[in-house]
């Protein structure tokens, strides 16, 4: 069952067919309500004055108002009936949006019905995962089991690692970079320009000097430019964010070349590497010929997201670092009867249970099969797009398919594509089937024939974004 956290006797497909979406939850209604503001600023007339909205959307057109219960609600049951109807409509809208989901790296194929009975408990893993606090409703035993699994995956012994389950991938990056700064307080943060925005957020939060490094057309870090940037700050230690899959192009930075560049240019024992493996950090170990991300190399920390490839229904992540680094960051908290070394205080205690459940059900072999399926289907999508004359790029170790941005923003929103400039991408996850890809391709080709008037107009050149070899515009098409 796709995206299930509860039990039900009726098959999901039957429910989809049996109950049409009410008007307020129809895609057209939702699209109208969530139409993006273009260009970057839009002026609207509101009550006789001009209001400027910068980027984003006016979400309040879809606001579900919170109302005070009436005095007789407990007798009539009207309030409960109203809320039940709203939630039912919302659930049906989620089913529809799940069917048209391609642009973001979330695995929507999961069934956690067996864990639904645990939702009656407020499970909180506040404090250090390895030191039990006075709060007894926790899931540390599950959390440490999950952390041990990831430590084995990245080849770090139990007595040599420290980590915790975060609330999202961004928190993992915030923590990893913070550890790096504590190890080297005057260090300079280096990150490729295609790194996740949370890396640059960390630099702002911690008031760190941050240097953006150029990238190759694939999206991976340009180590020639990295070398040049290092020489500009050769007196200061280096803190480096290495991408194990960039956000837009799914590019994997060459970890070995980054280490070599550091050591050959006077930074031996003067650097800290954090590996941002939000999506591909869990896929890479199961890709043949892929370079290894391992603590046997001189890296300081690795983070992954739990709600992406693993398929956890709530945002979460895993952060692993070397135990020797964490003492500089931690402090004792008497109120908790524990130690504070995490970014957040209270932490979702349900997430470790969901992760533990999935890791036990799938194991290494199960993840390997899913990785192979994703890569196979990503190549299928790339080949079909190329056959249709659409500019497309797929990095060797990636399931992120990059192609020319569709001209119709309604189509972009319908398929929830992630876009940047002239390109868009689809992230092929375990829930993305060949049937879904064929459906997407059929709609895209039909729309595209209208956009370009069946060949009378030319599609844009995206050679600068994907390289000449991948661009099929009139100038570069062979």
Automatic annotation (TrEMBL):
<feature type="modified residue" description="N6-(pyridoxal phosphate)lysine">
    <location>
        <position position="308"/>
    </location>
</feature>
<keyword id="KW-0456">Lyase</keyword>
<keyword id="KW-0663">Pyridoxal phosphate</keyword>
<feature type="region of interest" description="Disordered">
    <location>
        <begin position="1"/>
        <end position="21"/>
    </location>
</feature>
<dbReference type="InterPro" id="IPR002129">
    <property type="entry name" value="PyrdxlP-dep_de-COase"/>
</dbReference>
<dbReference type="Pfam" id="PF00282">
    <property type="entry name" value="Pyridoxal_deC"/>
</dbReference>
<comment type="similarity">
    <text>Belongs to the group II decarboxylase family.</text>
</comment>
<keyword id="KW-0210">Decarboxylase</keyword>
<protein>
    <recommendedName>
        <fullName>Serine decarboxylase</fullName>
    </recommendedName>
</protein>
<dbReference type="InterPro" id="IPR051151">
    <property type="entry name" value="Group_II_Decarboxylase"/>
</dbReference>
<dbReference type="InterPro" id="IPR021115">
    <property type="entry name" value="Pyridoxal-P_BS"/>
</dbReference>
<dbReference type="GO" id="GO:0030170">
    <property type="term" value="F:pyridoxal phosphate binding"/>
</dbReference>
<dbReference type="GO" id="GO:0016831">
    <property type="term" value="F:carboxy-lyase activity"/>
</dbReference>
<feature type="compositionally biased region" description="Basic and acidic residues">
    <location>
        <begin position="11"/>
        <end position="21"/>
    </location>
</feature>
<dbReference type="GO" id="GO:0019752">
    <property type="term" value="P:carboxylic acid metabolic process"/>
</dbReference>
């Amino acid at each position: 069952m796709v995206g299930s956290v509860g039990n039900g006797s009726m098959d999901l497909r039957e429910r989809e067919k049996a109950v049409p979406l009410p008007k307020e939850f129809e895609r057209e209604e939702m699209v109208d309500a969530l139409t993006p503001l273009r260009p970057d600023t839009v002026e609207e007339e509101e009550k006789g004055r001009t209001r400027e909205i910068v980027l984003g959307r006016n979400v309040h057109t879809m606001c579900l108002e919170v109302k005070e219960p009436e005095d007789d609600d407990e007798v009539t049951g009207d309030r409960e009936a109203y809320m039940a109807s709203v939630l039912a409509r919302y659930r049906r809208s989620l089913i529809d949006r799940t069917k048209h989901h391609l642009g973001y790296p979330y695995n929507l194929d999961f069934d956690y019905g067996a864990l639904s009975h645990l939702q009656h408990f407020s499970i909180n893993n506040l404090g250090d995962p390895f030191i039990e606090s006075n709060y007894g409703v926790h899931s540390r035993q599950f959390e440490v089991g999950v952390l041990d699994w990831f430590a084995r995956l990245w080849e770090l012994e139990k007595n040599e690692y420290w980590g915790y389950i975060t609330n999202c991938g961004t928190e993992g990056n915030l923590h990893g970079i913070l550890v790096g700064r504590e190890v080297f307080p005057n260090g300079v943060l280096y990150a490729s320009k295609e790194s996740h925005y949370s890396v640059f957020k960390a630099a702002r939060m911690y008031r760190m000097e941050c240097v953006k490094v150029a990238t190759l057309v694939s999206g991976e870090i340009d180590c020639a430019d990295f070398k040049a940037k290092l020489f500009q700050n050769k007196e200061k230690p280096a803190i480096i964010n290495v991408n194990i899959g960039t956000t837009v192009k799914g590019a994997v930075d060459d970890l070995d070349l980054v280490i070599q560049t550091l050591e050959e240019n006077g930074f031996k024992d003067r650097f800290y590497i954090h590996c941002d493996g939000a999506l591909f950090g869990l896929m890479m170990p199961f890709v043949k010929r892929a370079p290894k991300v391992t603590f046997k190399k001189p890296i300081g920390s690795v983070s992954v997201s739990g709600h992406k490839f693993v398929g956890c229904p709530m945002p979460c992540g895993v952060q692993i670092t070397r135990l020797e680094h964490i003492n500089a960051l931690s402090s004792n908290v008497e109120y908790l009867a524990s130690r504070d070394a995490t970014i957040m205080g209270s932490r979702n205690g349900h997430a470790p249970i969901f992760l533990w459940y999935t890791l036990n059900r799938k194991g290494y072999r199960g993840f390997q099969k899913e990785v192979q399926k994703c890569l196979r289907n990503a190549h299928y999508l790339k080949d079909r797009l190329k056959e249709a004359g659409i500019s497309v790029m797929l990095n060797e170790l990636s399931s992120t398919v990059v192609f020319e941005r569709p001209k119709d923003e309604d189509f972009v929103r319908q398929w929830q594509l992630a876009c940047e400039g002239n390109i868009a991408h689809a992230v092929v996850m375990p829930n993305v089937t060949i049937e879904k890809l064929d459906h997407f391709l059929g709609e895209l080709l039909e729309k595209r024939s209208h956009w370009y008037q069946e060949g009378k107009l030319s599609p844009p050149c995206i050679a600068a974004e994907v390289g000449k070899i991948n661009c099929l515009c009139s100038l570069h098409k062979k």
